[in-house]
Amino acid sequence: MDAVKRMTLWLSCVYPAPFPVRVRWTKDCSPEHLGECVPRPDKGYFDIRLRPGLGFEIAIETLIHEWAHARTLPGRVEGEHAHSPRFWLDVGEIQRGWEERGCVVAKRIWLPR
Ligand SMILES: [Zn+2]
User: Fold this and answer.
1) Which of 34, 37, 75, 90 could disulfide-pair with 66, CB 3.0 to 4.6 Å?
2) 39 C-alpha vs ligand 1 centroid, how far in Å?
3) Ligand 1 centroid to 87 CA: how many Å?
């Protein structure tokens, strides 16, 4: 199991999203982004796409950012920006948890691509 799969498992347990989240490396990601979170209501899950070739720290930072989107997009009220204060509070909460415990989980099994 690679670090991103392991971290996805950790995020699912500690910071669950209201819908299942699929995380994958893919070039099928808009060119100006390192990653993106795409709701797939037709499939009943969120699709998080990470650009291949990201280094460990950037990949983790990107995954946390996109994971917070998966957690906060479903509760978004009309007119609320995707990067709302509620979103950034969630990013901060996940980052704190990551620095306290999660990084040990993922770094131990990270293998350079
Ligand atoms: Zn974003």
Assistant:
1) 37
2) 13
3) 9
